[in-house]
């Protein structure tokens, strides 16, 4: 029996490879987003810690220069938090772009896989017709031989 060989198999393989690459790229940008979010969380925790120190320092005997230094550091942390929020937003945009690319790649692969599946179904149907024709010819030949 003949074996099915899809004419466009290399395209199917390419589309599968493109999908795998898009999955890998998406996982990379998701990892970056997670890192940015963790970094932002650490900055917020550090800011809360320093704000608490500043609040408790007002009830203790702390020099004015120390209070000003704490306040300046908190303001510095605030500016770092603003910058980190922008980084998180960029990472979220990259993740969304990666998801769109992956979705497109998955759709392309699905189209080509469906095309291959349809071609394979047609091949099987043709093979069944051929086999049935061969069996009919054998039956006819036997009948003719037996009739003689």
From TrEMBL:
Keywords: Bacterial flagellum biogenesis, Bacterial flagellum protein export, Cell membrane, Cell projection, Chemotaxis, Cilium, Coiled coil, Flagellum, Membrane, Protein transport, Transport. Residues 26-60 form a coiled coil. Pfam families: FliJ. GO terms for cellular component: bacterial-type flagellum; plasma membrane. It is a peripheral membrane protein. The keyword Coiled coil applies. It comes from Paenibacillus albus. The keyword Nucleus does not apply. GO terms for biological process: bacterial-type flagellum organization; bacterial-type flagellum-dependent cell motility; chemotaxis; protein transport. It is found in: Cell membrane. This is Flagellar FliJ protein. Belongs to the FliJ family.
């Amino acid at each position: 029996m003949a074996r099915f060989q899809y004419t466009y198999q290399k395209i199917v393989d390419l589309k599968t490879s493109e999908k795998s690459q898009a999955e890998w790229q998406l996982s990379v940008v998701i990892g970056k987003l997670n890192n940015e979010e963790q970094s932002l969380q650490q900055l917020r925790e550090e800011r809360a810690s320093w704000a608490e120190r500043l609040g408790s320092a007002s009830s203790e005997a702390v020099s004015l220069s120390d209070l000003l230094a704490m306040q300046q550091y908190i303001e510095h942390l605030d500016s770092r938090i603003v910058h980190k929020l922008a980084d998180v937003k960029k990472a979220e945009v990259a993740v969304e772009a990666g998801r769109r690319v992956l979705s497109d790649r998955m759709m392309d692969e699905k189209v080509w896989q469906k095309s291959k599946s349809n071609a394979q179904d047609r091949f099987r149907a043709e093979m069944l017709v051929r086999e049935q024709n061969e069996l009919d010819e054998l039956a006819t030949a036997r009948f003719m031989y037996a009739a003689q």
